[in-house]
């Protein structure tokens, strides 16, 4: 009898542990149209499942009402934590209110959720640093402290609905603006302010069309272009496409990027894109999984920034991962040796 009781007790404890580990976590990604979000979603799902959580992963096809509905459904489906990479940072207020009412914790993933007190944590990369890495590369590549110039530059920034886009832009501009003010860098299009250079939804075709218009208006007679400062790889790809079809100037311009997408890494190897900033989504996913576990276990949640990310309602406690510079010289070490890509991926 004692043996039977002991076996029952063990079984009950096992069931209890399984139930505790099987709490549900919602993951809302903006779209499958960009490589990085597919990777982010896959890594997040894999790591959360490895940690013993049930995962509800949804992609919103870059449609705000769809994402709002998906997040609200996750909350209704008893997700205890919801991780959200927002399409538009200020668009999910009703879902965030619902989460607060039901005691569901919210982690903003890589894009800050704006204009709501009901954002518990933010996990991202140091986005301002991403921009400074890009700007510093341009400064050093052109030797702006010593060269006479003037050098010619155009700018393509990111989505106005993505709070990170302004950090990327500002980080780079803060490095380069002294040279712009001194006339060592000129921008023939005259488009330098964020609202002028932004790319809605980060789409490659949108960036390409704007780049084509700029080239037609300012470089149709073979005028030289030294730099096209792009905030990320999807926009850099659009700019590269436009240049390949429409640019007849002397030499190929420096093109910056971010994310180390496969197409752009191939372009770096081919000499069409000068650099990219690698944000290892495996690092970010692992950190978010750790934060989810800390929340559900009632532990103190790891953050390393409590001052920077103000969403207009509160400063959101944040964990910032470090971005990494990548180019044709070091991509093997960073991307292949680490297992992020294989050699075949980049052929």
Structure description:
The protein is α/β, with parallel strands linked by helices and 347 residues long. The chain folds into 2 domains: 2-119 and 280-321, Rossmann fold; 127-279, 3-Layer(aba) Sandwich (Rossmann fold). Helices cover 45% and strands 14% of the residues. The protein contains 12 helices and 12 strands. The protein has helices spanning 2-21, 35-50, 64-76, 93-101, 127-141, 163-181, 194-197, 204-218, 233-246, 262-270, 281-296, 331-336, and strands spanning 24-29, 54-59, 81-84, 105-109, 121-125, 151-156, 185-186, 227-230, 254-255, 276-278, 318-321, 324-326. The strands form 3 sheets. A 6-stranded parallel beta sheet has the order 2-1-3-4-5-11, with helices on both faces. The protein has a 4-stranded parallel beta sheet with strand order 7-6-8-9, with helices on both faces. The chain has a two-stranded antiparallel sheet with strand order 10-12. Helix 2 links the parallel strand 1 and strand 2. The termini are far apart.
Label the CATH architecture of the largest domain. 3-Layer(aba) Sandwich
Q: Tell me the number of helical segments per DSSP (H or I, 4 or more residues long).
A: 12
- Which of globular, elongated, flat, extended, rod-shaped describes the shape? elongated
Instruction: Estimate what percentage of residues fall within beta strands.
Output: 5-15%
Largest sheet, in brief, is: 6 strands, parallel
- Outline the low-pLDDT stretches: 4-21
CATH class of the largest domain: Alpha Beta
Overall pLDDT confidence: 93
Q: How many strand elements?
A: 12
Compute the CA-based radius of gyration. 23 Å
């Amino acid at each position: 009898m004692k043996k039977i009781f002991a076996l029952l007790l063990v079984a009950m404890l096992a069931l209890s542990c399984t139930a505790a580990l099987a709490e549900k976590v919602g993951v809302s990604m903006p779209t499958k149209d960009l490589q990085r979000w597919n990777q982010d979603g896959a890594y997040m799902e894999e790591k959360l499942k490895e940690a013993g959580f049930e995962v509800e992963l949804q992609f919103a096809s870059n449609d705000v009402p769809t994402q709002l509905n998906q997040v609200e459904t996750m909350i209704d489906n008893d997700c205890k934590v919801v991780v959200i990479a927002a399409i538009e940072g200020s668009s999910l207020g009703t879902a965030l209110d619902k989460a607060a009412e039901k005691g569901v914790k919210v982690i903003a993933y890589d894009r800050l959720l704006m204009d709501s007190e009901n954002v518990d944590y933010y996990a991202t990369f140091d986005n301002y640093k991403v921009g400074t890495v890009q700007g510093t590369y341009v400064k050093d590549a052109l030797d702006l402290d010593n060269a006479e110039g003037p050098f010619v530059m155009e700018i393509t920034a990111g989505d106005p609905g993505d709070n990170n886009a302004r950090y990327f832009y500002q980080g780079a501009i803060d490095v380069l603006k002294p040279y712009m003010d001194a006339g060592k860098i000129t921008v023939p299009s005259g488009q330098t302010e964020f609202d002028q250079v932004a790319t809605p939804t980060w789409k490659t075709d949108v960036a390409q069309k704007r780049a084509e218009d700029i080239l037609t208006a300012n470089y149709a007679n073979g005028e030289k272009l030294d730099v096209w400062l792009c905030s990320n790889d999807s926009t850099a790809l659009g700019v590269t496409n436009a240049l390949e079809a429409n640019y007849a100037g002397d030499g190929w311009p420096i093109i910056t990027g971010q994310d180390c997408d496969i197409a752009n890494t191939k372009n770096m190897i081919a000499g069409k894109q000068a650099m990219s900033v690698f944000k290892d989504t495996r690092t970010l996913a692992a950190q978010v999984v750790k934060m989810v576990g800390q929340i559900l276990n009632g532990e103190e949640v790891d953050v390393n920034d409590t001052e920077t990310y103000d969403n207009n309602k509160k400063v959101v406690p944040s964990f910032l991962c470090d971005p990494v510079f990548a180019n044709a010289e070091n991509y093997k070490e960073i991307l292949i040796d680490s297992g992020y890509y294989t050699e075949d991926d980049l052929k």
